[in-house]
Amino acid sequence: DAGVIQSPRHEVTEMGQEVTLRCKPISGHNSLFWYRQTMMRGLELLIYFNNNVPIDDSGMPEDRFSAKMPNASFSTLKIQPSEPRDSAVYFCASSFAQANYEQYFGPGTRLTVT
Amino acid sequence: RKEVEQDPGPFNVPEGATVAFNCTYSNSASQSFFWYRQDCRKEPKLLMSVYSSGNEDGRFTAQLNRASQYISLLIRDSKLSDSATYLCVVSLSSGYALNFGKGTSLLVTP
Lengths: 114, 110
Description:
The complex is a heterodimer. By secondary structure, chain A is an all-beta fold. Chain A has strands at 5-7, 10-13, 19-24, 31-38, 42-50, 53-56, 65-71, 74-79, 88-95, 104-105, 109-113. In chain A, the strands form 2 sheets. In chain A, strands 2, 4, 5, 6, 9, 10 and 11 form a 7-stranded mixed sheet that branches. In chain A, strands 1-3-8-7 form a 4-stranded antiparallel sheet, with no helix packed on it. Chain A starts with a strand and ends with a strand. By secondary structure, chain B is mostly beta strands. Chain B is 0% helix and 55% strand. Chain B has strands at 4-6, 11-14, 19-25, 32-38, 44-50, 55-57, 60-65, 70-75, 84-91, 98-100, 104-109. In chain B, strand 4 (32-38) and strand 5 (44-50) form a beta hairpin.
């Protein structure tokens, strides 16, 4: 069975450019989470969706970040404009809403903004 | 203050040793507790849940102390393959978002 799929796996971009990260959750899961991981701050929850509806976006750093989930099988996280401090590994995870403790993570997107 | 605090380590132990990690959490309303494992440059994966009465899964034992608001993970008979970062995770309840600690790094050496 396919797990959570993320693309791209690596992204190098210049400051000021738009970055779009993509995620396909596990089929049948109805919760989706976007995380950011850095050495300094660890794993931080940015936003999560339940049945395609954003439930908590309090972790989104600022207006430069936006996330969408147009359907149950696809989500995007967009950064516009990107800044060097956005460099991190971005993980997408999915789960059954009734069992959010068991989240299945994708392989992550390693973003470098120069 | 971060909601979940862990000693970052690294813990360097020889094969066969017993090692224990602790983590503390700040929100006394937290109801659900877990340990996740993250291998180097990989994604986190659920290792085990932590129940009030304590629970064991093979060589791994997890315990919860609600009064002191800390969680522990004990690994017996360490294997080389146990080398990873162990993330302490706390949630208000099932169905709520997870709060991850920054992790404790374990290196098991031959």
